[in-house]
Amino acid sequence: MEIRIISFPQYFSNEGIIINNILANYPIKLHLRKPQSSRDEYMKFIHSINEKYWEKLVIHNYHEDFNNITSLKNFHFNTYSRNKANKFEGAIKSTSCHSFTEILSCQSDFNTMFISPIFDSISKIDYKSNFESKEIVEFIDKNPLSKIVALGGITAENMKLVQLWGFKAIAVLGYIWNIETIKNTNLIFERIDKLFEV
Question: For residue 57, what pLDDT is reported?
Fold first, then answer.
């Protein structure tokens, strides 16, 4: 099972150090999503991460500023930024989808599609899942070549179910990052370890 981690939406103390440790110790891709960030803050954040790990980063903000940096090859586009994706020839591109119909419309232009929320979101209050187990299994069975990443409410406790549904990749945010874990960073690594034990 491929595991991806999406960054905490806000910056916090020692975040760069923690991310460097994660990238040094786990075979993951880390999505740098900072929706309220300024360009300068985002650039500074990326440079707080050791360049030897940049190939494991996925850029969510200010895509054009990083298009010509060869060690940054992964770019994520949300619904509103998808129209920029065709400018990134040779890049590995992912996008966010919220229905199976949307996945089918995107799969020719993107290497990977995220589908969410598979379960009720942990990080977004009242963001509920609208997916039924049966429809998930049927879609994955009919579209085995689509690279789909499950997102939304995933924890070590329900990850086995996600595998049984047929997903080959997951992304986590709220399970790893919250007010409790960023104050006690040992919890971050304990939770990542639990995901890899499933």
Answer: 98
For residue 9, whether the previous peptide bond is cis, meaning omega lies within 30 degrees of 0, is no
Integer Cα distance of 187 and 90 in angstroms: 37
pLDDT of amino acid 117: 95
Query: Domain locations in the chain?
Result: 2-197
Tell me the residue ranges of DSSP E strands in the chain: 2-6, 29-32, 57-59, 74-77, 92-97, 112-115, 148-151, 169-172
Q: Indicate the residue type of 117.
A: P
**The domain defined by 2-197 carries CATH number 3.55.40.20:** no
Q: What is the pLDDT of the chain when averaged over all its residues?
A: 94
First to last CA, the chain: 9
Closest by CA position to 112, among listed 27, 9, 29: 29
Could you tell me which of 154, 193, 191 has the C-alpha nearest to residue 170?
A: 154
Q: In terms of DSSP bridges, do strands 74-77 and 57-59 run parallel, antiparallel, or are they unpaired?
A: parallel
CA geometry: angle at 25 spanning 172 and 124, to 5°?
Answer: 15
Q: What are the tens digits of pLDDT across the range 123-152?
A: 888 888 989 999 999 999 998 767 999 999
